Amino acid sequence: MSVTLICPNLKCRTILQVPDSTRGKKVRCSRCGRDFMVPAPKTPATKGPAEAPAPKLK
Ligand SMILES: [Zn+2]
Known about the structure:
By secondary structure, the chain is mainly β. The protein contains no helices and four strands. It has a domain at 2-37.
């Protein structure tokens, strides 16, 4: 598993793929060398919306 990120450097914006194990840690952009945090997952690894709005039926 890997995490896809976009470099926060507005002049770079390189799409980076980092290992899942880097979540919550700092990684370095291979292009511009900027350090930034990989966001930790807020929700358990479940796919799809947790609470899909129920369609209103008349
Ligand atoms: Zn960068």
